[in-house]
Amino acid sequence: MGIYLSTPKVEKFSEDGENEHLRYGLSSMQGWRATMEDAHAAYTNLDDSTSFFGVYDGHGGKVVAKFCAKFLHQEVLKSKAYLTGDIGTSLQKSFLRMDEMMRGQRGWRELSILGDKINKFTGMIEGLIWSPRSSDGNCQVDDWAFEEGPHSDFAGPTSGSTACVAVIRNNQLVVANAGDSRCVISRKGQAYNLSRDHKPNLEIEKERILKAGGFIHAGRVNGSLNLARAIGDMEFKQNKFLPAEKQILTANPDINTVELCDEDEFVVLACDGIWDCMSSQQLVDFIHTKLYTETKLSAVCELVLDRCLAPSTAVGEGCDNMTMILVQFKRPAQCNASTEEQSSSTGQAEPETQLERSERTELHEVVPFMGSIEYIEY
């Protein structure tokens, strides 16, 4: 549940940016929580043709979220797959690479630099609104050389973080997700989920957890963690006979690739502090109303955070840290085919995508995305 403050911290970190193809706004707020464990990254020009946006929701401490915000996009840039144009594979490898990089002396040192307190007796790293500076972006080259030191055997942090990332290159949108942060696209005012919330009771997650020797109690992995995928949380990744993607908990992301078309208006990435309070469709509807009155996208995000903040901690929902990134497309892209034609031609979408679209007059129940989508589980 976490520790709550007597009054919420409503100060926000907000920023806006743009390039010739899109503009974005973001905002983060600590809220009722005693600490701020979210982090984010936003780069309109990861390279000459690519934009990168990421939301990282930490648990058990802020350090893993901050680590991902600082390094994940750099790993994407360095990936051989990225250099050949395979953004999905580069994202998948970079998610798993985060766990590798946080081990050993170098991992220990970097986590310490990022500011979390280290318990001198146990050696455990315990869990500021934070995002990397622009100078921490795509200009750094680091081969992550092995370092000798007193913490060479450091197994990695016991805290962890979700990661939900959107990479936009030309008319292609690639979404990678591990955890319960979420990415949603608005197409003609209709919300479509581009990621799946990784909860332990999902059949595919439950099967992996049980096969790896874990268990689920009260909807939590081994009775403690209410996520089935995350970066960090090394105590759940100790089976030396299993690869990273088959551990009790895995950082292995789902990958969705979408061909954008002229009906696509904006994309939202947000942590569960938002989704606990608003459905995907409710958030899309809210954003549409505010786009007419607000000039800055960060102002729209701030209004969402204020809308979700609970009046007291008695409710539960609306008491979490909140982070949201809103990315609006400046120019319509060209659709190669209609939504229905593309959905039937891929044959790789989730079974859920066969559901018919809900009527807008009914309850706001989001429809999984049915456009040009390639769903990949590595």
From TrEMBL:
PROSITE patterns: PPM_1 (PS01032), PPM_2 (PS51746)
One Pfam family, short name: PP2C
Signal peptide: none
Enzyme class: hydrolase
CDD domains recorded: PP2Cc
EC number in record: 3.1.3.16
Domain PPM-type phosphatase, chain residue ranges per copy: 23-329
InterPro entries to which the protein is assigned, alphabetical: PP2C, PP2C_BS, PPM-type-like_dom_sf, PPM-type_phosphatase-like_dom
Amino acid composition bias (Polar residues), ranges on this chain: 337-348
An example molecular function term from Gene Ontology annotations: protein serine/threonine phosphatase activity
Cofactor(s) listed in the protein's UniProt record: Mg(2+); Mn(2+)
Keyword annotations: Hydrolase, Magnesium, Manganese, Metal-binding, Protein phosphatase
Keyword Lyase: no
Domain of life from the UniProt record: Eukaryota
Region annotation Disordered: where it falls in the sequence: 337-361
The keyword Transferase appears for this protein: no
Family per similarity comment: Belongs to the PP2C family.
Protein's UniProt name: protein-serine/threonine phosphatase
Gene: LOC106761975
